[in-house]
Amino acid sequence: MKIKKGDTVKILYGKDNGKQGVVLAISNGMAIVEGLNMFTKHVKGDGKEKKSEILKIAKPMNISKLMLICNSCGKPTRVGLKREAGKVERICKKCGKTIEVIVKEEVKKEEKKVEKKEVKKSTVKKETKSKTKKE
User: Fold this and answer.
1) Are 90 and 80 in contact, with CB atoms under 8 Å apart?
2) Chain centroid offset of residue 77 CA
3) Using 50, 70 and 90 to split pLDDT, how confident is the model at 135?
4) What is residue 18's predicted lDDT score, i.e. its pLDDT?
5) 8 Å CB contact between 86 and 80
6) 3-state secondary structure the chain
7) Which residues are paired to 22 by β-bridges?
8) What is the pLDDT of residues 6-30, one digit of tens each?
9) Rounded-to-10 torsion of CA 30, 32, 37, 42
10) CA distance 44 to 41
11) Can you give the pLDDT at residue 32?
């Protein structure tokens, strides 16, 4: 995914277009942006324990409505991916600087396997005696 949790984004469409916020959560192509896309929810109380109240909730919005804001140039930009030697870099398309470097898990697993082979333990096989029945 090109947009991740913690990124600053700009909303392109909808009632909050042009506003900026930080991504709180992402799931299934939908993102929740802090303080944006707010809706009111009326909760009815039961009269004993729960109270009736009106809540403000940030609803998820589609990632296609969001554009990442680059940390270095401060402009909304598209995100490019550059892959080399087990590393993936997210790159700003406007200024060309790296936004984040991601190390793939596969490379980490291979490094662990190499370490395990070096510390290889000796194994001893036990011989089992077979009993024969005499009749």
Assistant:
1) yes
2) 19
3) very low
4) 92
5) no
6) CCCCCCCEEEECCCCCCCCEEEEEEEECCEEEECCCCEEEEEECCCCCCCCCEEEEEECCEEHHHEEEECCCCCCEECEEEEEECCEEEEEECCCCCEEEEEECHHHHHHHHHHHHHHCCCCCCCCCCCCCCCCC
7) 8
8) 999 999 988 899 999 999 999 999 9
9) 100
10) 10
11) 94
Residue 119, both tokens: 């510390």
Contact residues for 35 (Cβ-Cβ < 8 A; gap 6+):
21, 58
Which domains, and CATH codes, for the chain?
Answer: 1-42+55-69 (2.30.30.30), 75-116 (no CATH)
93: confidence class by pLDDT, cuts 50, 70, 90: confident
**Cα 64 to chain centroid, rounded:** 16
pLDDT at 110 over 70: no
Nearest-CA neighbor of 82 among 99, 105, 58, 68? 99
